[in-house]
Amino acid sequence: MRRLVSDGGVETADVLVIETAFHEMRRGSRDYILRKPLPTNVGCDVSDHRQVFHDLVRFETELWGAVDERLRSEVELPLSWFESMLIVDQLEGCRVYDIAEALSITVGGTSKLVDRIEAAGLCERRPNPDDRRSSLISLTAAGRDRFTDAAVVFDDELSRRLVVSDSTLDRFHAVLRRLRTTSRLLDHPDEPGSGHG
Description:
Layout: H1 12-27, H2 30-35, H3 49-75, H4 79-90, H5 96-103, H6 107-119, E1 123-127, E2 135-139, H7 141-161, H8 166-187
Antiparallel strand pairs: 1-2
């Protein structure tokens, strides 16, 4: 049985979960999905890295585009703004660095993104009493109202696009988290838990 990554990473059975979820979500029919069983022949060679990469990137592109279009048309809020505002809403004492870490983007790019959201009157910065070099970010009243409206649209569009059974979605999410952890450890081998250094 071929592995996608080394020991402790993702195995062929996990790749089947990813591929099955991709095809089900892109097919877009809940009735079809609930009728179709998850493949059990995990011994077959299905861990084609190129195909997994293609499906992963294409699906992310399609999903982002669909959600972004709805947010822009219904609440006049780009998805990139919504994602940043989601982090601010969830994290007390949020900093630019926190948003950058959560979204896996650069601090410089995040700072410019927050600048645009602030200029639109949807968030505000205040001095960080524990670190004068940084600011704490919070949503304004207008920002919270816009975020609340956007969250309804966001959740609705995801429910339309992620059309798989709850069990498949849970397994899919677990595999993606394992892949992201493995990828992060490859990029930062000195972090705790990497097994290096």
